[in-house]
Amino acid sequence: MPSKNALFYRAVFQFSNIAGRPGARRCRHYQRKVRNSPSFQRTVDRGQYVIELHAWLSPESASFATFIYEKAGERLLRHFTGSDENEVIRQARMWCEKNN
Fold it and tell me: pTM value?
């Protein structure tokens, strides 16, 4: 079984590779799969955007990711990753404010 960190980086890599590509059905299917994963923590409404926070925790480390979606079309627009939960959330909120 892959480690939690391996699953985290695979999820982020797959999201970044499919965002913006044709094939919205595939992208939406994968988004639903990750949204229903054990890593999902919460959703934050930011006007025309929705921020999702995911966390991969282990005794040795913690990894966090925020995924920013377009509220209307649920298209993935951006993601941020890191080991500091507050910093990852701050980056996502700043991106939303800048692009609002």
Answer: 0.66
